[in-house]
């Protein structure tokens, strides 16, 4: 990683940026993050990403160190300093550096650590993965039970993605009690008879920002949305499947555990939703 990053109030070349070995983000994954897509040099769905950052921090009793305007300025500064036209901004807030390793939360006067960086990712809009569609394998969901909090505790998601890649697939969908929860880093959907089906919100999935916007756009376009659980077998027998995430937008899924979904090609509903999402979210980009 190169470029200019942000650490606790300073913009620095990445190789000069440092945090303490006693930072709780490093020692305990005691940290929250957000990732916002950048298209045309602008932030996609920014207010919703900030609202989720606020909520995640509040769930862990970490005081949000910045207000909305400061966060927006920080994001824009990183986009500008790194000349990002298409890509993402990552921000992380940890409970801070206590100078020791202890399980108890430190006293309130210990300031949170803030780290942020921007990444150029040309091709997220004109994405080859979206044109080809993804091959998915399913894996058991072995994560903790507060997946609605966007913590940096991502080791199982990383492991699941590696297991999926080693099995020759592009990504993994996680399964609990016979039902798909979500993808390793995205929300999961199927399309049946024109209806979009996705798992309802709860503590068992991340409340995807792309999910919220997409479902709103779909309803506005008079498409039917069913928020309910679905099984792997139902997904394999569906007309279409797809995922959503901040930088993947809407990406079709063409195969699940070796079984072609629908025609085995990206489906018309998924491709239409991708177009709608990108067009609509560009209009409100900041
Ligand atoms: N689910 C999980 C587990 C994720 O890690 C992510 C994104 O990182 C998502 C869903 C999608 O969320 P969003 O649309 O806010 O990027």
Automatic annotation (TrEMBL):
**So which cofactors does this thing need?**
pyridoxal 5'-phosphate
User: Pfam families attached here?
Assistant: Aminotran_4
Q: Which family does it belong to?
A: Belongs to the class-IV pyridoxal-phosphate-dependent aminotransferase family.
User: Which pathway does it operate in?
Assistant: Amino-acid biosynthesis; L-leucine biosynthesis; L-leucine from 3-methyl-2-oxobutanoate: step 4/4; Amino-acid biosynthesis; L-valine biosynthesis; L-valine from pyruvate: step 4/4; Amino-acid biosynthesis; L-isoleucine biosynthesis; L-isoleucine from 2-oxobutanoate: step 4/4
Signal peptide positions on this chain: none
Query: What Enzyme Commission number(s) does the record list for this chain?
Result: 2.6.1.42
PROSITE patterns, per the entry: AA_TRANSFER_CLASS_4 (PS00770)
* Protein name, per record: Probable branched-chain-amino-acid aminotransferase
Which reaction equations make up its catalytic activity?
Answer: L-leucine + 2-oxoglutarate = 4-methyl-2-oxopentanoate + L-glutamate; L-valine + 2-oxoglutarate = 3-methyl-2-oxobutanoate + L-glutamate; L-isoleucine + 2-oxoglutarate = (S)-3-methyl-2-oxopentanoate + L-glutamate
Its biological purpose: Acts on leucine, isoleucine and valine.
The species is: Pseudochelatococcus lubricantis
Q: What class of enzyme is it?
A: transferase
A single GO molecular-function term is:
D-alanine-2-oxoglutarate aminotransferase activity
Q: Any keyword Transferase?
A: yes
Assigned keywords, A-Z? Amino-acid biosynthesis, Aminotransferase, Branched-chain amino acid biosynthesis, Pyridoxal phosphate, Transferase
Q: Which InterPro entries match?
A: Aminotrans_IV, Aminotrans_IV_CS, Aminotransferase-like, BCAT-like_C, BCAT-like_N, Class-IV_PLP-Dep_Aminotrnsfr
